[in-house]
Automatic annotation (TrEMBL):
<comment type="pathway">
    <text>Porphyrin-containing compound metabolism; protoporphyrin-IX biosynthesis; coproporphyrinogen-III from 5-aminolevulinate: step 4/4.</text>
</comment>
<dbReference type="InterPro" id="IPR038071">
    <property type="entry name" value="UROD/MetE-like_sf"/>
</dbReference>
<dbReference type="InterPro" id="IPR006361">
    <property type="entry name" value="Uroporphyrinogen_deCO2ase_HemE"/>
</dbReference>
<keyword id="KW-0627">Porphyrin biosynthesis</keyword>
<dbReference type="InterPro" id="IPR000257">
    <property type="entry name" value="Uroporphyrinogen_deCOase"/>
</dbReference>
<keyword id="KW-0963">Cytoplasm</keyword>
<dbReference type="GO" id="GO:0004853">
    <property type="term" value="F:uroporphyrinogen decarboxylase activity"/>
</dbReference>
<dbReference type="Pfam" id="PF01208">
    <property type="entry name" value="URO-D"/>
</dbReference>
<protein>
    <recommendedName>
        <fullName>Uroporphyrinogen decarboxylase</fullName>
        <ecNumber>4.1.1.37</ecNumber>
    </recommendedName>
</protein>
<feature type="binding site">
    <location>
        <position position="76"/>
    </location>
    <ligand>
        <name>substrate</name>
    </ligand>
</feature>
<comment type="similarity">
    <text>Belongs to the uroporphyrinogen decarboxylase family.</text>
</comment>
<feature type="domain" description="Uroporphyrinogen decarboxylase (URO-D)">
    <location>
        <begin position="140"/>
        <end position="156"/>
    </location>
</feature>
<feature type="domain" description="Uroporphyrinogen decarboxylase (URO-D)">
    <location>
        <begin position="21"/>
        <end position="30"/>
    </location>
</feature>
<feature type="binding site">
    <location>
        <position position="152"/>
    </location>
    <ligand>
        <name>substrate</name>
    </ligand>
</feature>
<comment type="subunit">
    <text>Homodimer.</text>
</comment>
<keyword id="KW-0456">Lyase</keyword>
<comment type="function">
    <text>Catalyzes the decarboxylation of four acetate groups of uroporphyrinogen-III to yield coproporphyrinogen-III.</text>
</comment>
Length: 346
């Protein structure tokens, strides 16, 4: 076991702890008034991502309130397409908008050269954070996994059923592979720089893995993730990596075994007994309270939290949500959740 007071890293090394480490996806964000104030000071959301002082500040804000066991770098998965040369804007209330790349002929616009010029401020944020966080808190770096980042690059925005990317990937697999290869390389370089700057763990967000066929999942989720894991481990053999393939249910065992990730993040829809029996035996798991229960609070939130702790707390486990905190969440519910988990005796 690692000789560290950071419970988050101990859980990732396979230790079963009496109280699981806790952090929450999107723990920095619009539900906090202090985030909204810093974001207004920064100008736009992207200005905030590329401002090391302010990005560091918003990463620290939830730690000041809730004593989480891990901090996650404040940035976004879409800085990679932007660094590759694709135009990106976040329009108020509409989410991200990119100049869509619908087929292989659009790939010429992308270039790996100079990505670190764009991403440099983010490495600086990681470095500042590594000095600023409490000694018991671990620092998580992250990136989107290639398939998920590609969904935004090809659709040009968020989507419900991803018609354009599925048509591209299924119809021209060799052309689409070129896009995935570019993303594997950019993501590897980006994450290596985050680790160099002080990130102690990496999370790969595969938010839209669940829309693929089994064949597609193997080729466009498992394969690229496996390559990134191998590339990172070639330089940092002990680096803990969490894969979060959202909505991928029964694929999770294959995902864990074939990619070599250290731990698997769980969305709120997975069957917990199945996870305990089939997945947690293979390594640590993280999840999976429905973020909507953080809005309702009270008994529905505590009852489900108890069920999660009873089922997954007997093995290596990190408490988290099944997806990110939403802006409507009352901050006091987050404090109540953390206290409940820390006080829970089983
Ligand atoms: C798909 C995806 C994105 N970004 C991300 C994902 C994967 C996880 C997931 O599925 O949520 C990942 C992400 N985005 C953000 C973080 C920061 C770290 C954290 O606290 O977890 C992380 C890890 C900040 C953010 N990223 C975004 C915000 C809100 C921006 C704002 O302040 O207006 C934050 C705090 C914006 C964003 N960024 C993205 C979308 C679709 C949106 C718009 C939706 C929304 O407005 O909530 C792309």
């Amino acid at each position: 076991m690692p000789n560290t007071q950071k419970t988050f890293l101990r859980a990732l090394a396979g230790e079963t702890l009496p109280v699981p480490p806790i952090w929450l996806m999107r723990q920095a964000g619009r539900y906090l008034p202090e985030y909204r104030a810093t974001r207004a000071e920064a100008g736009s959301f992207l200005d905030l991502c590329y401002n090391p002082d302010l990005a560091c500040e918003v990463t620290l804000q939830p730690l000041r309130r809730f004593d989480f066991d891990a901090a996650i770098l404040f940035s976004d998965i879409l800085v990679i397409p932007q660094a590759l040369g694709q135009h990106l804007a976040f329009k108020q209330g509409e989410g991200p908008q990119l100049e869509a790349i619908r087929d292989a002929s659009g790939l010429g616009k992308l270039s790996l050269e100079g990505i670190h010029d764009t991403l440099g401020p983010i490495y600086e944020t990681v470095s500042k954070l590594s000095h600023a966080i409490p000694s018991s808190t671990a620092l998580i770096g992250f990136a989107g996994a290639p398939w998920t980042v590609a969904t935004y690059m090809v659709e040009g925005k968020g989507s419900k059923d991803f018609p354009n990317i599925r048509r591209f990937a299924y119809g021209d697999p060799d052309g689409f592979a070129k896009l995935i290869d570019i993303l594997v390389e950019a993501t590897t370089q980006y994450l290596l720089k985050q680790v160099e700057a002080g990130a102690e763990c990496i999370q790969l967000f595969e938010t839209w893995g669940g829309v693929l066929s089994e064949t597609g999942f193997n080729r466009w989720v498992i394969e690229p993730t496996k390559q990134i894991v191998a590339n990172l481990r070639a330089v940092h053999p002990d680096l803990p990596i969490i894969g979060f393939p959202r909505g991928c249910g029964l694929h999770l065992v294959d995902f864990k075994q074939k990619t070599g990730v250290t731990a698997v993040g769980l969305d709120s829809g997975v069957k917990l007994d199945w996870v305990a029996e089939n997945l947690q035996k293979l390594g640590p798991v993280q999840g999976n309270l429905d973020p909507m229960l953080l809005i309702t609070g009270g008994d529905p939130m505590f009852d489900e939290t108890k069920r999660i702790l009873d089922t997954l707390g007997k093995g290596p486990f990190i408490f988290n949500l099944g997806h990110g905190i939403t802006p409507e969440t009352p901050p006091e519910h987050v404090g109540q959740l953390v206290n409940f988990i820390r006080d829970y005796k089983g």
